[in-house]
Amino acid sequence: MATIALTADNLEATIENNDIVLIDFWADWCGPCKMFGPIFEAASEVHPDVTFAKCDTESEQVVAAQFGIQSIPTVAAFREQILVFSQPGALPEDALAQLLTQLKALDMDDVRKKIAEAQAQAELHGDD
């Protein structure tokens, strides 16, 4: 599967309608982004069960701001509509493959349980 262009218009639907979404935040002027692009594209061909999305931070500044992107490239990953990974820096091919393996192996019931526990602790301590 090829990558899709992630925009403010399709962001919500992309995350809601796909089990795993991997996002590459990039810009045309960014050298490391240009080096990472082919790696990201190649992985999209190997993992058709994952939605690969590219977000141009120049044309989609609102989306980049929503994610707090301060450095590019940044890779973010959603699994079952939960942001489970976000890291700046271009990933080497093997690190991207390892990330995809880990995303697919995540126990999402455990992830949701840990989120609920953290929220309960925050409420207990009066944090919002």
Automatic annotation (TrEMBL):
Keywords annotated in UniProt: Disulfide bond, Electron transport, Redox-active center, Transport
Gene3D superfamilies: Glutaredoxin
One GO MF term attached to the UniProt entry: protein-disulfide reductase activity
Keyword Transport: yes
Residue intervals of the Thioredoxin domain: 1-105
Domain of life assignment: Bacteria
Keyword Hydrolase part of the UniProt annotation: no
Gene Ontology CC annotations of this record: cytosol
Cited PANTHER family: GEO12009P1 (PTHR45663), THIOREDOXIN 2 (PTHR45663:SF40)
Family designation: Belongs to the thioredoxin family.
Protein name, per record: Thioredoxin
Highest classification ranks of the organism: Bacteria, Pseudomonadati, Pseudomonadota, Alphaproteobacteria, Rhodospirillales
